């Protein structure tokens, strides 16, 4: 079976499992799925035989960009907090996006569904965690900006 037909079948089965009507790739090998108020984008890369799952997990916060970027990079480090996915910045849209490539060449539908489900849960977790991460970043920056001798008694 041709790989594009195979991925089309996997996505169609995903649509049935999620009780969505006619889930299919468009002419650009792209589709989106809304699951529990989370939008997951799927894009088939025929050349590499991989499917890209991506979802916006939050907006880029005001200020403290460098400090926040460091925290996201720490989460990405050897995929410690991303379970194989990566956090990235869509600079044009000012969004933080979770992305994961899925190699579907030898993947049966149950394993594909499991990978999709893990990605949805991971997306939800990051959507929930980002506001707290923004807040803790802002607080740590504010605490660091206080001079160390600010409370010293001067004679």
From TrEMBL:
GO biological process annotation, one example: protein secretion by the type III secretion system
Domain of life: Bacteria
InterPro entries: Tir_chaperone
Record protein name field: Molecular chaperone Tir
Lineage start: Bacteria, Pseudomonadati, Thermodesulfobacteriota, Desulfovibrionia, Desulfovibrionales
């Amino acid at each position: 079976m041709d790989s594009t037909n195979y991925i089309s079948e996997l996505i169609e089965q995903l649509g049935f499992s999620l009780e969505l009507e006619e889930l299919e790739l468009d002419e650009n090998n792209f589709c989106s799925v809304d699951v529990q108020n989370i939008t997951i984008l799927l894009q088939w890369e025929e050349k590499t035989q991989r499917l890209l799952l991506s979802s916006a997990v939050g907006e880029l916060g005001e200020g403290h960009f460098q400090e926040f970027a460091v925290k996201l990079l720490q989460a990405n480090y050897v995929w410690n907090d991303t379970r194989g996915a990566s956090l990235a910045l869509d600079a044009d849209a000012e969004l933080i996006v979770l992305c994961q490539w899925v190699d579907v060449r030898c993947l049966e539908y149950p394993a594909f569904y499991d990978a999709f489900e893990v990605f949805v849960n991971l997306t939800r977790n990051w959507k929930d965690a980002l506001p707290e991460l923004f807040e803790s970043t802002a607080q740590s920056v504010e605490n660091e900006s206080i001079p160390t001798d600010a409370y010293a008694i001067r004679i």
